[in-house]
């Protein structure tokens, strides 16, 4: 039924799914617009950063056995039985619209080359109605073929997470939104080769809403935890104790408050969902939640400014070490990292900010230090924004001895307040009054 598969976009979503289909014996071609990435893959190397268990080995294996090849050339779509589109779909919050440039360009190039009876599937996260109002028209108008008749069209949203790319694709359930019954059947046949999780057939718009809603839901849950954290700060209690006891109640699952919400999904998916009803409905809760989560980095920086004010100090000219730049613990992924918000808030007040992260190599010209204790030396304060495991085992006596002033701001409940005060630190934690 399927022999040749083309994956458009070989990033966090495309490269693991390409390697998995290749490992199942399909002839897979990965299309990427940058020759560097294409060359990397054709050498059997993984084109993405970060620790991805088994992915580098799998890519090496399937490239060696010639089941996976990379190219910049879309003509390979001519012989494709299935074409999966896995390109980025960021959201421009200034213009309040998705940035579909990569998606449009990929769709046009696919349509110029694809053959009759191919199955085209969009795995990228898209706003509801995008399949009907953008994807289908571009494919039909460019290919002069009719979706659902001359070729099949579906939306199967990805559910990957950095650090668990292969695991998530293999084990999580997937929603297969097809334009008609035949498409849904073909999608289930295709994905059953690599997905052990349940495959749920539905229509395209339902699949679009499920994907954006599942992440909007998580963003709202985190925002609720952050709001309770702000309340606890004012009441002088510990939100993490509150959270633990709340979650003793049945059907409760209060999330973790913290220094902010980063990543490639949560910061944009509620905006994509609300964009799907632009002009007909203005969702309130999820936009309020998004705005609250966006304020957490500056709130975390504010905790430092407040504690310095209490000590008669001004953050201006002070050396502040921001610990953790990745958006997620023990990861090097920096997309939409809350740390940038903390750093910019402190720099705006004149602070001299140094950045430490054990995993992140570099970021747009910012120097990211690798040696924690040298970063701490002579600092006026440490601000912990990412809960990297390394931070849980630091030598507190050593850092107290080398810091100029022992101020610690804890954005991820890494430390125990009472313990830190006992050791002579001036300590503030998000959600800890
Ligand atoms: N965060 C909190 N409090 C929480 C959980 C997360 O502040 O209780 C913050 C994290 O520090 C991070 C951000 O939110 O900055 C995102 O964390 P995440 O655990 O949601 O990680 P992501 O962004 O990689 O989320 C992805 C999503 N998966 C997909 O979109 C396919 C999300 O829906 C999943 O729930 C998550 O992976 C996962 O747990 O697998």
TrEMBL record:
Cited InterPro entries: 6-PGluconate_DH-like_C_sf, NAD(P)-bd_dom_sf, UDP-Glc/GDP-Man, UDP-Glc/GDP-Man_DH_C, UDP-Glc/GDP-Man_DH_C_sf, UDP-Glc/GDP-Man_DH_dimer, UDP-Glc/GDP-Man_DH_N, UDP_ManNAc/GlcNAc_DH
Keyword Oxidoreductase: yes
Enzyme class: oxidoreductase
Molecular function GO labels: NAD binding; oxidoreductase activity, acting on the CH-CH group of donors, NAD or NADP as acceptor; UDP-N-acetyl-D-mannosamine dehydrogenase activity
Catalysis: reaction(s): UDP-N-acetyl-alpha-D-mannosamine + 2 NAD(+) + H2O = UDP-N-acetyl-alpha-D-mannosaminouronate + 2 NADH + 3 H(+)
E.C. code: 1.1.1.336
Record-level GO BP terms: polysaccharide biosynthetic process
Pfam families according to UniProt: UDPG_MGDP_dh (PF00984), UDPG_MGDP_dh_C (PF03720), UDPG_MGDP_dh_N (PF03721)
All residue ranges annotated as the UDP-glucose/GDP-mannose dehydrogenase C-terminal domain in the record: 321-417
This protein's UniProt keywords: NAD, Oxidoreductase
NCBIfam families cross-referenced by the UniProt entry: NDP-sugDHase (TIGR03026)
Family named by the database record: Belongs to the UDP-glucose/GDP-mannose dehydrogenase family.
Protein name, UniProt field: UDP-N-acetyl-D-mannosamine dehydrogenase
Source species: Candidatus Methanofastidiosum methylothiophilum
Highest classification ranks of the organism: Archaea, Methanobacteriati, Methanobacteriota, Stenosarchaea group, Candidatus Methanofastidiosia
